[in-house]
Structures are given as C-alpha cells and as structure tokens.
Amino acid sequence: MKPLVVAVVGAGPSGIYAAEALTAQSEIPVQVAVIDKLPVPFGLVRYGVAPDHPSIRSIRNTLERTLERDDVSFFGNVAIGRDLTVEELRSVTDAVIYAYGAASDRRLDVPGEDLAGSIAAPDLVAWYCGNPDVHPETSGPSTGSAPDGDGHNPVEELITHTRQAVVVGAGNVALDVVRVLIKNVDELEDTDMADEVLQVLGVKSITDVHLLARRGPAYTSFTTKELRELAKIDEVDLILEPADFDLDEPSRARVDKDKIAARNVAAMQDWLERPVTGAARRIHLHFWTRPTKIIGTDRVEGVGIERTRLDDTGRVIAARALEPIPAQLVVRSVGYRGIALEGIPYDAELGRVPHAGGHVIRSDGFSPDEYVTGWIKRGPTGVIGTNKSDAVETVHSLLNDVEDEALVAEHDIAELAALLAERGITPLDLPAWRRINAAEIARGQGHGRDRTTIAHHSELLAAADDPA
Questions:
Q1: Which of 236, 349, 366, 404 has the greatest number of CB atoms lying within 10 Å of its CB?
Q2: Where does this protein hold FAD (predicted)?
Q3: Is 96 helix (H, G, I), strand (E, B) or coil?
C-alpha cells in the first residue's frame, strides 16, 4: 500500500504530537514531513518555556524520539510563505496539518500602549529563551523583540535601565516574566540561557516588579507549583494587600469547587504571614487591579490603574481609580493570538484556523487535504500535554477521510525534497539538529553548565554544518 505523505507545518509539541499520532497507528502507512521555519525543532518547548524550568524543557527529549522514526523527516529552516507557498506544499503532499501555533499577542487596548517600554510577553520570552528571530546578526550586543534598522531593539536597554516593571496578567507566562525580571543572575547561571542574555540580566537594575490581575486571587490561571516558586527566590520580599484575601461569595464558591484555586489562595494567604524584611528587591501582587493607561511622553513613565469588581453577571467592571504605579517597563501577558498566513483560512475574530474536528473549513466547505492542530486550532489554552489529545483528534479526522477514500495517497516525500532543491533550499535535517545540540552542550560545558543556547541564525547554521 502506498504511504500517505503528510506535511506538518510546525515542529513544536502540537506538530510533533500529530506526527506521533500518525505514525503510532499501523492501519494506514504514512510518511511525515515535519517542517519548521526555525533551524531547530521543538517550538515553544525550546523558545517559550522559561529556562529556569529544565524539567519542562526536557520534554523535547521525548519529542525528539518521534523525529527519529524512519517514517518521519525533519525539514528545518524552511518557511511556508517564504520558501514555499501553501499551494506548492499541497501540490507535492497528500495532506497538510497546520500546527504553527499562536505567535502574536493580545493587546491591552489602553492609551499609551505603544510607548517605548511597553512590550508583549512573547517578545520578552523569545529574547530570554534565545530565539534567533529576535537576536539580530550583529557583532555587538543582541536585543530582543523586533530589531530596529540598525540591528538592535529595545529589550536589552529596557532590562538594563528599568527599576520598576509592571507585568499585566494572571497566568504562568506572567509568573515566568516576573521571575526572570526579579531574580539575580546567579540564580539563572545554571540554565541554558544564551550567554548574551545572561550578560544583560547580570547588569539589570530592576528592584520592583508589580503583577496586575484584573480579578481576585481565586481567579488566577497559575499552576500552584509555579506560584510557589516566587516565595523561593532569594532576598526578595513579597508584597500583597490583605484585603484582597477577604474573599467575596463568588470567590469562596470558586475555591470550594476548584482545587487549584484553593491551593493558590492558600499559598498566597501564607505569604501574608511572612515578614517584610526590607529586601532590596520586591514582587508586588495587585489583585482586582487593571491598567487604564500607560503614562509617558516618549517612553513609559508609569501605569494608571483602577480597582475592579464583578457585576451581577460576573463581568469585570471598574470600581474606583487608584494611584498610578511608577514604571519604566510594562509587559502585557494577557494571552497569545494566532496570526494569518497567506493561503490558509483564518478567522480574524477568534485568531484561529476555522475547522471541525481539526478538518480545515474553507469558504466552499471542508478542504479535501488540510487539517489543523494546536493553538492555531483551539486558541492558546491548556498545557503542553493538551496538544497530544488535540493532535489525536485531528489525526483521527484525517485517517477517517482516508478510510472513506476522500483522501488518497498520490505523492512521494521525495517530491517535497526535490521542490526545495529546485529552489536552492537545503533544509536542516535531524542529523543537523544533533550537531547543533552537540555544539550547545559543548558550549555549556565550557561554562560549567549542561548546555548554552545558541541564539543567532548564523551560529546555528554553522553548528549544523560542523562535522565535528
């Protein structure tokens, strides 16, 4: 039986879990091409999980086992839309699964949001995780977010010139940002952070980080383990408002039915008993608080805030204005958002690819050979493991279409390689990734660490080509 050739666009957890689900079954033979615009696989496991969480980042070892299968091929450094159009990809494969995630961010929609010093959490996270897309090719210091015309961008300057930072959000990414901003560099030196990132964090001037949550402590999206990490940071005071923990009836009801909410509230209530030591660095947790404007003329100077409450329908509304918070850096961490890629259906209101059960829907109905999984399918919800069941649902739809003969095997995976070769494009394969991996391990061991992330495209490509 001729294998079905399936291209998976995106080598993060959702894409690799889709490849795993395709190859774990034996009824229908498949050949899977996992394609990623970056030179390396693993997506947000590599470039979204905080470097001081090595146990979570180690999931890439499990993901790599799928890429090692004979019926799976990795095509790194190949961008759909740049190197191949969607239609060209569909012309040389039997089916395509879009798994390219949600690369953009949600905005606060408040005045002053575009001032210098107001940035999105994905930009900051990409910088401290060493994503080459935000580390420009320069001989001088690298910076995060989108580089300016001189090959620099503002994150590095912000980190080194900020004393007070505000993080808006009540999820784990917001906690990651708070930790990285407030920790001393010696608490991060054993991570795999790029050398230039550690250099910047080593000279940062941040003394206070304020986290704003528009609902109360019972409504956070933190996992309790990550929340408790705040209390383990050396020489940092945790500042909370005791009145926030006088829970109203809806908050008590939530705590009663939600074990995670109960654990989170209990952990923070314990912190109220901790003495304030006068430490030089502080984390301020502001509940029932949201920004109304970002203050400044040319750059961020502060954040206007208001107290919030719930109305009778459970909607967050304003209660009263509060004193502004002085700040030089504002990081919005209120959710990721999928983006449109040319040639792929997109629901702008939801920020997702329209689908039913993972089967892509175009204007004239179900597309015969297109599927979607991960955040670009369901939105930025769940944890890494959620992508596994999501991918299984999508693959189930695809395999059902094969059984119904709505999808048939007509191509060979060599056609994709040949088309790329015609364009002069040499994708990075799994052996190339292993050479990059070895180079990062060697670089880290040279500094007394397990590994050091290589943060520049040119260095990644050089490591991929190094036979040593």
A1: 236
A2: 14, 44, 80, 375, 382-384
A3: strand
The per-residue pLDDT for range 322-341, each reduced to its tens digit, is 999 999 999 999 988 899 99
pLDDT tens digits along 217-276: 999 999 999 999 999 999 999 999 999 999 999 999 999 999 999 999 999 999 999 999
Answer yes or no: is 97 a known binding residue: no
Q: Which helix (H) or strand (E) holds 332?
A: strand 329-332
CA distances from residue 60 to 52, 106, 373, 432, 461 in whole angstroms, order as listed:
15, 27, 18, 16, 20
Q: Is 44 annotated as a binding residue?
A: yes
CATH architecture of 4-103+338-428: 3-Layer(aba) Sandwich (3.40)
Instruction: Determine if residue 226 is labeled as part of a ligand binding site.
Output: yes
The matching CATH number, chosen from 3.50.50.60, 3.30.460.40, 3.40.50.1360, 3.40.50.300, for 104-332 is 3.50.50.60
Rounded CA-CA distance 149/155 in Å is 15
Distance (Å, rounded) from C-alpha 286 to C-alpha 239?
9
408 known ligand binder = no
Residue 239 parent element (H or E): strand 236-240
Q: What is the dihedral of CA 323, 326, 327, 332, to 10 degrees?
A: 0
242-255 b/e (C-beta count within 10 Å ≥ 16 → b):
eebbebeeebeebb
Q: Where does residue 40 rank: exposed (0-12), middle (13-18), buried (19+ CB within 10 A)?
A: buried
* Whole-Å CA distances, 79 to 82, 119, 123, 220, 228: 5, 26, 20, 36, 39
Q: Where are the domains of the chain?
A: 4-103+338-428, 104-332
Q: Is 214 labelled as part of a ligand binding site?
A: yes
CB 335 within 8 A of CB 352: no
The answer to whether 60 is a known ligand-binding residue is: no
- Cβ neighbour number for residue 327 with a 10 Å cutoff: 25
